[in-house]
Write a structure and sequence with these properties.
Chain lengths: 252, 229
């Protein structure tokens, strides 16, 4: 297998939130198959800067699949063709020589484009602010084992806590619904004793924040679970629904 | 009360309305299928007509009928609202979108299959329900069924509609249980299987009538058409 491939990139360019965007084509000869997708973008931007052109804006931070900043809808899939992978962890060996790669930003009313491939994910912050917290008394830290948590529950809570808030679930959902993200947060805290005091209010407030941000309503297609880089299960959405029913049917 | 009604307005609440009305309609489908099976008794349509008369004469059933129409209306209106709202959630579409890689066509097009089924339902009600309940037909219901399915267009319409209904249920049945929170990693697969079996039962069950009557299989159609009921 050759160590380098030639690609054509079809990239969404948009100057800012207000102006309309368009696609632009870029030739990418000699892309090393050992590069990550973002490294290829760096090579492209390096070239654009040398040519005195505007580099392609894209989000990134940790580049090791844990921060959730990198996004990009690559060839019709959130974070590209691989399962359970962020764009920073996607390598060029998964593309073939001569291929045209289409790169688009997350598209959702709740995620307006800031520039090119960068979108504003403040909606997620608002959902977290609405209930993604617990109350902890100040003072000395309590003894680590003073609150027993069943192993099965702590594992399940941990699975939910693996969500990195990347927004691939919204990007991929035909309804642009944020239900998988929301359910991961609610599920994580609902399973633990620390989450108990705000349990009822949390789910109600977070759903309100979700709906107000213009994210769509879930219709259980399961696309989110298939594309989530952390493979968060939609069984968390079922738990969210249970939490909601419980909260909705009990009084204040 | 107001507080608890409010819970049906959020996106999760709207979905609950879809699930609860959907499950209620599933129960109705089973009852309807049971009623239809009377057509296969080879008694000239007697049992079927009597069953129909029993339903019309029973005060409880007549009350439930209101709930049924209410349920259909709610399910359809709420579905339309959700489809509309969810379109607003993505104003700019993707140029390339490989949705087939992560979800089934039927799960993504419940609004479309649902709308076609609704149109079918109007035709269906007009042919049988409205004629008998309000226009006072002088032929029996069994006779009308046998006659309607002599038309190849009508019979084909029914078969296609029942296949779409099956596709709708294949996603809808397990989806409803997910929505009311009865899903977890252990139940996911059994629920999907149950949904598929239910969808198959409904499709094969209901689609058998136009097929059996059109081709007069086992002489079912002629048995009814030649009887005096
Ligand atoms: S649920 Fe998965 S896809 Fe959605 S934000 Fe969290 S990690 Fe990303
Ligand atoms: S850059 Fe942090 S997850 Fe990709």
């Amino acid at each position: 297998m050759s160590d380098s491939i030639n690609l054509k990139l079809k990239i969404w360019r948009q100057r800012n939130h207000k102006e309309a965007g368009h696609f632009e084509m870029y030739d990418m000869p000699g892309v090393s198959t050992h590069m990550s997708f973002l490294e290829m973008m760096d090579v492209l931007n390096d070239r654009l800067i040398r040519e005195g052109k505007d580099p392609v804006a894209f989000d990134h931070d940790c580049r090791e699949g844990i921060c959730g900043m990198c996004s990009m809808y690559i060839n019709g899939r959130a974070h590209g063709p691989l399962k359970g992978t962020t764009t920073c962890q996607l390598h060029m060996r998964h593309f073939s020589d001569g291929e045209t790669v289409t790169i688009e930003p997350w598209r959702a009313a709740a995620f307006p484009v800031i520039k090119d491939l960068v979108v504003d994910r403040t909606s997620f912050d608002k959902i977290i602010a609405a209930g993604g917290y617990i109350s902890v008394n100040t003072g000395n830290a309590t003894d680590a084992n003073s609150l027993p948590v069943e192993k099965a529950k702590s594992d399940e809570a941990f699975d939910a806590a693996a969500c990195i808030g990347c927004g691939a679930c919204v990007a991929t959902c035909k309804n642009a619904s944020g239900m998988l993200f929301l359910s991961a947060k609610v599920s994580h805290l609902a399973l633990l004793p620390q989450g108990e005091p705000e349990r009822r209010e949390r789910v109600l407030r977070m759903i309100d924040a979700h709906d107000e941000s213009g994210l769509g309503a879930c219709t259980n297609t399961g696309a989110c679970e298939a594309e989530c880089p952390k493979e968060i299960s939609i069984s968390h959405i079922a738990r969210l629904n249970r939490e909601y029913l419980r909260a909705g049917m009990t009084g204040e | 009360m107001i507080a608890s009604l409010r819970m049906f307005y959020t996106s999760v609440g709207r979905k609950l309305v879809m699930a609860l009305t959907g499950l209620f309609l599933c129960v109705f489908l089973l009852e309807h299928l049971y009623g239809n099976l009377q057509l296969y008794k080879m008694d000239g349509g007697k049992a079927f007509n009597e069953y129909g008369d029993f339903l019309v004469g029973n005060i409880i059933i007549r009350t439930v009928e209101f709930a049924l129409f209410g349920g259909i209306l709610l399910h359809a209106l709420d579905g339309l609202y959700l489809t509309w709202r969810n379109r607003q959630a993505r104003p700019v579409r993707y140029a390339v979108n490989r949705q087939a890689k992560n979800s089934t066509w039927f799960s993504r097009n419940m609004g479309l299959t649902g709308s076609i089924i609704l149109v079918f339902l109007v035709v269906h009600l007009r042919t049988f329900f409205v004629t008998h309940r309000f226009l006072g037909a002088d032929t029996s219901m069994a006779h009308d069924v046998a006659e309607a399915f002599q038309s190849n267009i009508y019979a084909a319409l029914y078969v296609v509609a029942m296949m779409l209904l099956g596709a709708h249920l294949n996603h809808g049945f397990q989806s409803a249980f997910q929505t009311i929170g009865w899903n977890n990693k252990k139940y996911a697969q059994p629920l999907r299987t149950a949904g598929t079996l239910f969808a198959l039962l409904v499709t094969i069950g209901f689609a058998s009538f136009p097929i059996v009557f059109y081709f007069d299989l086992f002489g079912v159609a002629s048995n009814i058409l030649q009887s005096s009921y």
